[in-house]
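Limitations

Structures in this collection are predictions, not experimental determinations, and the ligand pose is part of the prediction. Treat each record accordingly. The example that follows, with pantoate as the small molecule, is included so readers can see exactly what is and is not provided: the inputs are given verbatim, and the output is the predicted complex.
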Amino acid sequence: MDSRHWHILGAGSIGSLFACLLDQAGVGCSLVLRPSDPALERGSLDILLREGSVTNRHNFALGSPASAAPIHQLLVCTKAYDLEESIASVLPRLAPDAVIVLLANGLGYQQRIAEQWPRFTVVSGSTTEGAFRATHHGQNREVQRAGRGITWFGASELGAPDWFSDWQEIDAHCVWTSDMDAVLWRKLAINCAINPLTALHHCLNGALAERHELALAVRELCVEIATVTEAAGHPEAATHLHTSVMEVIRATANNRSSMLQDISAGRPTEIDYLTGHLVATAERLHIATPRNRSLLNAVRELETSQTLGRNR
Ligand code: PAF
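Predicted complex:
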């Protein structure tokens, strides 16, 4: 296996989307599945990537954390709350010079992971691509690309590394930045304005522009979010926030946000790494964020009621 090969941990909607895009560009990649995933027995997996009326089939070799092949380049697309456990599970497979790219929503885990495993190069990523997993068809999985966005990668002290040239070949807009913190704050701000509302109202992103009361809620949330983002030292990430949020809502109008997908599937959400991080930062800076706090509480309550419902 060549050392440019990517291993993808977390084949949910975004992990599957990038696996297909890398494969389409001729960049080798394979999927690392949980040992309990029944697909592992087959050794390979087809993923159908749908965009508009076009569907392409991609075939991937599968491995588990226990497979023998060393991992040189690892893209981790798990949920924020699963990142550390997922990386720990593949540690024996990581080559000494491994690059780990984290492509999850939210803030609060990046530094912890880089400090925990200093021998690896840890790069943060962030994407505004919209994608969701459609139902499984027999042995295939299907991912719907619901809106094109921008994908940033960066690590503060590094220029663009050699491996990034492969990402410039894929059919997506990928950018290297030396100011990843600003990008992560911008993305956090956008997610805080979109995800909790869509999860609580069970609606597509587009409804936040179409329904008057939701559009108003987005506008009010953006005021609080921009204030915290600016006070946290990222004024550039706060500039014209409402305009940017509305642009993302329109570009991903047909998407079910990742938080809505989590709630619908009865999974925990990333609320603690999104609105939770924003509200904690606001508290530290003595800024009132009643609207965000109320969404934080409402999503946490929804998660708890789902868990109780499952255990009943
Ligand atoms: O979390 C998500 O769903 C996405 O980050 C975004 C950009 C809000 C599109 O749905």
